[in-house]
Amino acid sequence: MGGPIADAPMTAAESVLARAAGVPRVVPGEYVVAEVDAMMMHDIFAADVLGMLQRVGVRRLHDPSRASVVFDHMVPAPSVAAAEHQAAARRLVKRYGIEAFFEVGRGICHQVMVEEGRFRPGDLVVGTDSHSTTYGALGAAGCGIGSSEMAYALATGRLWFKVPETVLVVLEGRLQPMVTAKDLVLYLMREVGSAEAQYRSVEHGGPGVATLGLPERMTVANMGVEMGAKFSLFPAGDVDTMRPGASYAATHTVDLGSLAPQVAVPHHVENVVGVDEVAGVRLDQVFLGSCTNGRLEDLRQAARIMRGRRIASGVRMVVTPASSEVYRQALAEGILSDLVEAGAIVEGPGCGPCFGGHMGLLAPGERCLGTHNRNFRGRMGSPEAEIYLGSPATAAASALAGEITDPRSFAAADEEEAGKEEDVR
Q1: Does residue 278 contact residue 388 with C-beta atoms inside 8 Å?
Q2: Which of 292, 257, 262 is CA-nearest to residue 394?
């Protein structure tokens, strides 16, 4: 492919970086120094980053209003070491005048950043969490960075970036019942994957984009980093992001209506198969939650399937709402009651089970199907355990059956319950 034409339209990622760098245009492969609009740290790294600034004599942040700190990973503190680390972070947050501080129980950082409006469409956002690509759901260019990079950004307000090439994903049609955005992104993991998306911006366009709401876009953008993508971008609204004449390294077209439920099998997220290929695999645990699929819509779909039913004997189900707001709404709607009555354990908002920090760890030989984003060996406890990834619908159906199950077998019941809920609203 030849180089971009001088006056050709820029991709979404190029437009964000050009604006942030204060230049008319940028091209893939170019290095730019850009103003960062929003910076996020969570409890695992906040004390390290701010302590680094203190040690080198930085007395004040460039702009404290751009910084956010969210306690979400080791919450509530599962050890004395974690409690001490959080106490140090609290002191430094106060020392550096960071007002956007969200304590234990507020929720998972990416969900909180969206709920609190900590960035705007078109912003350049960085976070000390790799799944900061989530912010692309609202048209912001979000990515994860390391502690030293975050310290520099906090001190100067700026950071260097290499302008990525762009992979365009054209979405057509509409998802079928019991097929979700998680199935879409798992499908993309298999079809695009890190071999093609590594350090590229994955941008989603086409008429199918308008059929995906914000929660669904967050799920897809969240897992962009699993493909190695620097950014994973959607339009801020329903307007198509495809820009005729822009330079795309590759283009993929997906018919949403043709997709079936997907499952990632151990021990890599790109090992994706149709649910029918692993149906019947026995499970010990099901996890519903995380920054990928812990939103109200995810819990609501699982509750519709599980209402009036019981989790299979020998299976435990752990649920973590993505935020206190999600928890509150799920409680008000009776969603949490439905899940608990089915036999699930509902924990506070946080990341614990997803990354194996605490709550819901696996023993050797155990299998878990979760709605989170990574199934690496040892991710949730023992390296001899197995982790499968699927949608909230697949998780609910599998918890009831005690084995990986195609959720479409519950489609009629789900549609009936969805109709009743719509009538009530």
Answers
A1: yes
A2: 262
| Two tokens, residue 400 | 């009831």
Find out whether 204 and 277 touch, Cβ atoms under 8 Å: no
Confidence (pLDDT) at 346: 96
Give the Cα separation of 352 and 36 in Å (integer).
29
Please give the Cα distance from 181 to 391 (Å, whole number). 8
CB distance 321 to 327 below 8 Å: yes
pLDDT at 2: 42
1 has pLDDT over 50: no
The SS3 of residue 377 is coil
Q: What is the DSSP code (8-state) at residue 9?
A: P
For residues 402 and 52, what is the distance between their CA atoms, to the nearest angstrom?
48
Task: Output the CA angle 335-338-342, nearest 5 degrees.
Answer: 145
Question: Strand 31-35 and strand 158-162: pairing?
Answer: antiparallel
* Tokens found for residue 131: 């799944």
In sequence order, which residues have a C-beta less than 8 Å from that of residue 42 and are 6 or more positions away? 69, 70, 71, 72, 73, 109, 127, 128, 129
Within 76-140, strands assigned E span 100-102, 124-127
Residue 195, pLDDT score: 82
Side-chain half-sphere CA neighbours of 7 within 13 A: 0
Could you tell me the domains of the chain? 19-26+28-162 (3.30.499.10), 164-258 (3.40.1060.10), 263-415 (3.30.499.10)
Which residue, among 288, 398, 405, has the nearest Cα to 339 in the 3D structure?
Answer: 288
CB 326 within 8 A of CB 111: yes
Q: What is the pLDDT of residue 378?
A: 86
- What is the rounded distance in angstroms from the CA atom of residue 113 to the CA atom of residue 90? 18
DSSP state of 175: P
CA distance 215 to 291: 10
Its sign, for the CA torsion 218, 398, 357, 330, is: positive
Nearest C-alpha neighbor of 294 from the set 268, 272, 323: 323
DSSP 229-298: -SEEE--SSSS----TT---SEEEEEEGGG---EEE-TT-TT-EEEGGGTTT-B-SEEEEEHHHH-SHHH
pLDDT at 140 over 90: yes
Q: Does residue 340 contact residue 61 with C-beta atoms inside 8 Å? A: no
Of 38-42, 235-239, 269-273, which gets the smallest average pLDDT?
235-239
